[in-house]
Amino acid sequence: MERITRFRAGIVLLLFAALIGFYVYRLYDEQIIKTGGGSVSNETTFTTLTRVKAARGEILDRNGNVLVSNRASYDLVLNHYVLVSAKGTNDYLYQLVKLCQELGIEYNEHFPISRERPFTYTLEDYNSAYQGYFQKYLEYMDGLDSDITAPLLIETLREVYGLPAEWSDEDARLVIGLRYELALRNCVPSMANYVFLNDVSQEEMAAIGELNIPGMNVEASTVREYQTKYAAHILGFVGAMSAEQWEYYKQFEEYSMDAQVGQAGFEAAFEEYLHGVDGWRMDTVNQDGTLVSSEYLVEPKAGSNVQVTIDINLQAVAEDALAENMENLRNNENPNADGADAEGAAVVAMDPQTGQVLVCASYPTYDPATYFENYNEILKDPLKPLYNRALDATYPPGSVYKPVMVIAAIDSGLINSATTIEDKGIFDPDNSPNNKYKKFEPTCLTYSLLGYTHGSINAAQALKVSCNYFFYELGDRIKLSIMDNTGKMLGLGESTGIELPESTGHRANAETKAELFDGENGIWYQGDQILAAIGQSEHRFTPMQLCAYASTLATQGDRYRATFLNRIVSSDNRSLLKESQVELLSHLDISDEAYMSYFQGMCMVTQSGGTAYTVFRDYPIQVAGKTGTAETDKEGKSDNGSFICFAPADDPEITIAVYGEQAGHGSSMAGVARDILDSYFEVGKPADVNAYENQLS
């Protein structure tokens, strides 16, 4: 709606600019011939309409720390009136392109023919507007045939522009490219002056300045600057529009074809707020390019500042902890140890009462400030630093799924909080030689590794020790529809509503399996159901979903939309333009009995005898958590590790979900959550704990 309003308001400006452009066109057309050359009197002046780029809004964290700002820069602009009317235009342009070749300078040019022989059209690389401009250019050049071949067009333009015969075809093509850009400003009067170079360095400016090219001016501009090395995956970046993007943005007057737009992360998600409205300036210069007068027709309006929900200090703690944890796992002296082959990881933290995301980190990462400079190196990294595992990767959750089963079983009447199930080691519900699960013989992990069982335990105790047998029993007896719907209402396999693109994953059920596999492989068996009950089978969720799920557990069933948006303020930070509102996506009516059962169980996970006790021993704040270990599809590789928690347990302020690829165990990832909690609650730096003491999760 806001864009529509801005679009309507811009119609008047667009018409005005068109009228001015038409006037300038008529004036110029009377003074200069189409091919250049010609002479003008000393009193001749040229009036141009210059589009003045608006500064982009800043991105700040929830505490007002600037994450992305604008750095002052300079662009080199060619005034087409002055340069085309000067003597020796071709020689100036030749010197310019050859100097750029020598210095390795990439300049702006959109002539849709390849720069090397054999010359071919590259129109498919440009959006529809640029393609249309090319057709207008052909018409302007005395009606050149639109079906003319690329080599013939180069040959024709060599003659039209009077390029020396001794120039190579490649050099002629480069000069023709600049002549094309200059001519476009004449046949399309509404186009702004030709920006030859963006963000030119002092060295480049000095070298080009020595050429004394008529009509070359320096224009003040801005470029994006990152004030942090963290949050690369969510900050995003800006870049030139693709053809597809232009088809969308061209409906909005404030966008020119050469506008920089958000391409990923916050820069893309909040583009409508960050992008400003360009201004228009009328400049009058004499024939040597000296400015005679300048007048703003419309002042540029800077974009709004976006304050996100991220706490950059907490984000830094999370990223550093994630990196240290995964590198420590990989640096194990025993290459065959669980977790020694650990790869990527992610962690998300949010406020469970609002859905505001405090941390969203993916490992490995990169420095956003050097993204373009180091792009090829980043791309070659086998751990895929560009992959945002927090939002895009989907994983089997492992035992962090088990609270779903507690809620489903108690609130469907299958069990109550006091119901006990005896762990017999090998799960055989029929207690007969014809065990229906004999093919894969499901067992409790404790029994498999240590040879003993957990005995008779209730739901809370089963969560504490993560007893697979208990949850096999629930999975065997419960209706699949009840289990599946409970997971759905808790947000698993559902969109979190976050502003950035995310994977939705899927829950393990008959429909999912049929979609994933063909024929008999897509048949749902009871064995699939008991594996689903412990977080295996075809469950695939993102770390963002797991954090939103943990938040729904913390609020006893309230599932809020996850959000990165805190508020929008004016560029001078004086006016509040928009503030994020808490949005309830769904509510699962969790009984007090079911809530207390999983609440007590998750609290016991971090207490003596729990699977995360070694990490949270003597912790001053009560943490409700759950570890998870999930088998991977990679044969011979360590299991994945997961951990979710909320704290303080009785009045949750923060929820965390951590996931590590091939981390070995869920307890291996719990230390990352503790580091985040230490920072959030300002707890003193913990003593070095052995995160591997109790790994039965």
Automatic annotation (TrEMBL):
Penicillin-binding protein transpeptidase domain mapped to chain residues: 346-677
Keyword list, A-Z: Cell membrane, Cell shape, Cell wall biogenesis/degradation, Membrane, Peptidoglycan synthesis, Transmembrane, Transmembrane helix
Membrane topology summary: Single-pass membrane protein
Domain of life: Bacteria
Compartments it resides in: Cell membrane; Membrane
GO biological process per UniProt: cell wall organization; peptidoglycan biosynthetic process; regulation of cell shape
Domain Penicillin-binding protein dimerisation: start-end pairs: 52-293
Segments traversing the membrane: 7-25
Gene3D superfamilies in the cross-refs: DD-peptidase/beta-lactamase superfamily, Penicillin-binding protein 2a (Domain 2), Penicillin-binding protein, N-terminal non-catalytic domain, head sub-domain
GO molecular function: penicillin binding; peptidoglycan L,D-transpeptidase activity
Family note: Belongs to the transpeptidase family.
Protein name per Swiss-Prot or TrEMBL: Penicillin-binding protein 2
Organism name: Candidatus Faecousia excrementigallinarum
